[in-house]
Amino acid sequence: MNHEDTYLDLRLTAENQASYFVRGAIQHALERVRPRFHGTLLDVGAGLQPYRQLVTAPPSRVERYVALDLAVNEMAAYRKKEHDLEWDGVTIPLGADAVECAMATEVLEHCPAPESVMREIHRVLKADGIFFFTVPFLWPLHDVPYDEYRYTPFALERMLRAAGFAEVELSPHGGWDASLATMLGLWARRRPMSVGKRRVISAITKPIVRYLLKHDHVPDLRSAPMITGISGVAIKRNTA
Fold first, then answer.
1. CA gap 148, 106 in Å, rounded
2. Chunked in runs of 10, what are the mean pLDDT values of the chain (240 residues)?
3. Residues 218-226: contacts with CB within 8 Å, 24+ apart?
4. Helix, strand, coil shares of the chain as percentages rounded to 5?
5. Residue 211 domain-assigned?
6. Cα–Cα distance between 69 and 61 in angstroms, integer?
7. Which pTM does this prediction carry?
8. pLDDT tens digits, residue range 140-174?
9. Per the domain annotation, does 151 fall within a domain?
10. How far apart are CA 77 and CA 149, in angstroms?
11. Which domain holds residue 63?
12. Fewer CB within 10 Å, N- or C-terminus of the chain?
């Protein structure tokens, strides 16, 4: 199995130390919000749909999962996964007040017009609808050239409220230690080097990564910390 293709219930290995914390943080964030999911859930930019089983299993109360993605995705692997709806990356082909919940995991950084996408998600949500999302903060350029942004929590809250969301809850992923662990893992696994050198370096960095993650503390965003990413929940309220 390719460790880079595994998203859930990860065990730290020399091979997955670059993505171990990041993917674990996304899973934990989804597990926290899962009891709030219900009705129809729209997965915006669903890609390989790695969290479909997680978000549709109890204690989630999702009755219908709808995968939304581009008609043609430049990433060949994504073409292997069929989706339910196609969009152009901005306009969602649904009417207003169509779904109870929406999610976008590691998607907003790829949107050239994120404010427009947020407005569209707000439009298709029913009153009291939930939008869950994650975005990276400390991560290499990826899916080049379709990697657009890295967001601060302050920019995210401003943009979501401007899109019409009445309530915004943001949570940082990791602190100083998790950030350093992630960088070490990325360096060991992705820096160009020979296979033999990578094997040796990965064996050296793995216990350091484990130690750092064991001692990591989730920071207060007001303390100007280093973080690896952000998850959030935005709520649409009925303004009528």
1. 12
2. 71 98 98 98 96 97 97 62 92 98 98 98 98 98 95 98 98 97 99 98 99 95 93 89
3. 218/171, 218/172, 218/174, 218/175, 219/172, 219/175, 219/176, 221/153, 221/170, 221/172, 225/172, 225/175, 225/176, 226/138, 226/175, 226/176, 226/179
4. 40, 20, 40
5. no
6. 23
7. 0.93
8. 999 999 999 999 999 999 999 999 999 999 999 99
9. yes
10. 23
11. 18-174+225-235
12. C
CATH number at residue 36: 3.40.50.150
Domain count within the chain: 1
Closest CA to 41 of 70, 71, 62, 15: 62
Torsional class of 97: left (φ above 0), alpha (ψ -120 to 50), beta (otherwise) = left
Report pLDDT digits (tens) over 69-94: 998 766 555 555 789 999 999 999 99
Asked whether residue 146 is domain-assigned, the answer is yes
User: How many residues does the structure list for the chain?
Assistant: 240
Let me know if residue 59 belongs to a domain: yes
